[in-house]
Amino acid sequence: MSAVIEVSVAHRLGAFSLDAEFASDGRLTALFGRSGSGKTSLVNVISGLIRPQAGCVVIDGRVMVDSAAGVFVPKHKRRIGYVFQEARLFPHLSVRQNLLYGRWFAPQAEDGGSTLDDVLDLLGIGHLLQRQPGALSGGEKQRVAIGRALLAKPRLLLMDEPLASLDEERKAEILPYIERLRDGFGIPIVYVSHSIAEVARLATHLVILGQGKVSMSGPTAELMSRPDVPILSTSAEAGAILEARVLRHEPEHGLTILGTAAGPLQIARRNLPEGTALRVRILASDVMLSLKPLDGISALNVLPGQVSAIGVRHGDGGALEVRLDCNGVGLLARLTVKSAEQLRLAPGSPVYAVIKSVSIDMP
Ligand SMILES: Nc1ncnc2c1ncn2[C@@H]1O[C@H](COP(=O)(O)OP(=O)(O)OP(=O)(O)O)[C@@H](O)[C@H]1O
Fold this sequence. Notes:
By secondary structure, this protein is of the alpha+beta class.
């Protein structure tokens, strides 16, 4: 299968050099990096706002830029939908008119793609049609902005920090809609974010940028559980992502039991049918290690595994991350350097991961 998006470009902006290369066949590719790492510049190259001095951009098999062949498809012909930090709706138009404005740009000759009903249903905005943007919450505005972009039948949706101006509650409200869009709409998404929690939850493919270069690119779960990606592993939000499924409920204990390839996990009772697939996240700071199986411990979740890699010291030098392999699933544990020494951890050491808390990302 060819990649959904392939980028290999070199471009100089004043003192800054963008020299970025990645290929992703993910449904949602996140561009992640510190401020000034080049995320916006790369987005501008993908969208056609910047014509790179050298290189190629291919979207869904279509060559948008090939400097050697003199190809440069202009921005308005790339069929890219945008969602920005601010919804940028037309204040004098109703929600319906804002949405239909998007459709106006859809290629007339082409059948298929999303209808207004599909979009209203996906984003839960049918009841807002007659309102003006001024009467919407921040989260509702963003959902309308996403709908407007989808109705233009884009080949690719570019979402540039779409949640950055929302408070935590509004973010939590909109995340499930972005997941539905990612999983059910068939439009690849490039998503720019500063937030590890957002990336962990949404991205299927992660591209990490540093000083204009791609320092890592790969499946999100794989990168998140590596101890040698400092921008991820040393953050307070560092942690592993596991695919899970609801196995059964234990109402008498108020628990739901999840199955994962690493072993079963018990979580506080969730009202989800058996078989429901979900993604869980286990923060590195919520994992302790033991060399022996444990009795008499209050933690419910203990998974056997072995150390697969040890990261470098960071912070004031007192902490490091250890990657575990639990039956082929990567977990990350944050330890003090002293504990790592006392346990004499080395790649291959058998350990038990004692998990203090599991967070559920979906639904
Ligand atoms: N037109 C320009 N001329 C010169 N330098 C530029 C230009 N545009 C961007 N830069 C520089 O390029 C670097 C990367 O900027 P860019 O906006 O791509 O980063 P970013 O990762 O999106 O940052 P942020 O997260 O803060 O938005 C910065 O150092 C910026 O000052």
